[in-house]
Amino acid sequence: MASLRSSGYVDPGWEHGVAQDDRKKKVRCNYCGKVVSGGIYRLKQHLARLSGEVTYCDKAPEEVRLKMRDNLEGSRVGKKSRQTEYEEQSYLNFNATDDVEEEENVGYRRKGKQLSADKDLALNMTPLRSLGYVDPGWEHGVPQDDRKKKVKCNYCEKIVSGGINRFKQHLARIPGEVAPCKNAPEEVFLKIKDNMKWHRTGRRHRRPETKELSTFYLNSENEEEEEQEEEEGAAYPMGNDKIVLGGDRRFDRDSRTTFRGSSTCNGSEPLSKRPRFDVNALRTPKIQMPLSGKQVKTGSSKRSRREVISAICKFFYHAGVPCHAANSPYFRKMLELVGQYGSDFAGPSSHLLSGRFLQDEILTIKNYLEEYKSSWAVTGCSILADSWRDFQGRTLINILVSCPRGVYFVCSVDATGLVDDATYIYKLLDKVVEEMGEENVVQVITQNTPSYRAAGKMLEEKREHLFWTPCAAYCIDQMLEEFIKLNQVRDCIEKGQKITKFIYNRIWLLNLMKKEFTGGEELLRPSATQSASSFTTLQSLLDHRIGLRRMFQSNKWISSRFSKLDEGKEVKNIVMDSSFWRKVQLVRRSVDPIVDVLQKMSSDESLSMPFIYNDLYRAKLAIKINHNDDARKYEPFWSVIDNHWSSLLHHPLYLAAYFLNPSYRYRPDFIL
Fold it and tell me: Which keywords fit this entry according to its UniProt record (predicted)?
């Protein structure tokens, strides 16, 4: 059967648009000037003002809108009644997707290629929307825009972005993409959950009298054609009792492409340096399934699970994926949906991953960020300026926005040679405040260096409704650095460094210590900052002082060549000196409360400033108690804390937050 295009037929949509490329996939509207992607059919939807896939054309005349709508309805009816002979045989697989609008348009979205059908097969291609079908989700929500992409819940009044399908996930309390609705009645929850289960796991039932299905070729963009091929999987030749999946040349080609394409993750790494892959993984045997669709187990369930986990691990190792990626909720969700789909699922190619699905995910993130920004008007936000130095020696400033919902990355600025310029810092922060909205910004947090302090004061003078505050972690780290400058502390740190350097620079001695005297534990204990690491390592030395003494008194040490060295003798004398360990205990009682506060700030607890204010105040009291109220011992450390106390904690904003914190305000020991 000759196609309409080959017979000289010209689509009436071309009277109202101009093609922008050779494939005619991008068309410019003659009325509003918008460039519509998706071919002439999508342009006619644009002119006919059909919702779901493209924005409306508000400037098209009414007669053009009616003409295009009639043309689209006519093409749908014609497809419904059309039964032609197919030239090639394969199978049509109706797959329910998460996007309801893609399911509704499966019958007419792609046009222009030759249709072929079995004579005994009658396909009803009428979309659900044209039959008057109304999604049950609309009984429980109200659309907030013309495209029905934002829906307001009737129970919790939350506005859900992403259309009716995302809204039903909200009602059905399906985790992963939207917050669940806790106010929806139980019968609504069960009803919508059953509806979503059909969409996610069910396939449209084929008619019992249908013997064979043929391939339905649809005209689409390259990515859509590739997506359809991957959803249909490999060829399905019909046998008497089994269907053979895979094992063809296309599978081998895709396998080679997939593993070869993994090198694109790091363009600087040559392909020849990639690890040699398991040959058995690339030569996957044919998977056989009975016609009933049930998987045939080849061994015990424990062995099968081990094989599956081994295959997942090989992907992580060979593709260079960090192991902690397995903790991602999206990884768990992926495995769940693949298991629900069935064993005939064919994974997407690298081209498909970097194509339309990437753009869809970007759009989802943008919609989420819009909701994120809208919360600033209610809770306010804090702007963070984090300075750091990379491996190339450049000074970079990361600009972030923090609010109760999380942290939002704004930009990264190269400030090499300018980080000490207060005027430059002031202009940078002022520009960020202007972009975020001055009415939304509560405070701007930076380091407590002279340039940042000057820039913060200039910013407060211009914008009277926000505060500049120094970074609490930076100020506490400055306290620890000043602690190290105290004579008694500096002496302990220097001697502790001599011990660790001597042991860790000699592999034999390090192995001896870990194997026989410390139970396999290390002496070095990294922490949030370099100063904090010095104190945590000093604490580790104190914990292992008995084992260290035993090691330097052992026969293996005495008979070793290291005991004859002057450095070895000096280290042994330090370890055997009781006065050294008494000084370390004094330093530990003085510094540990402050180190604990810094470690809590660097953890995932995300403490707010009112809690840190209380922790620092309690840490100061703990130092006094540890020294039995002996002012001669704790006064040097208190003076260092007081030098930073006024700039960090005696701030109107933080004092008000601490005073209004109910977890402290109503305690009998509350002190301001």
Answer: Metal-binding, Zinc, Zinc-finger
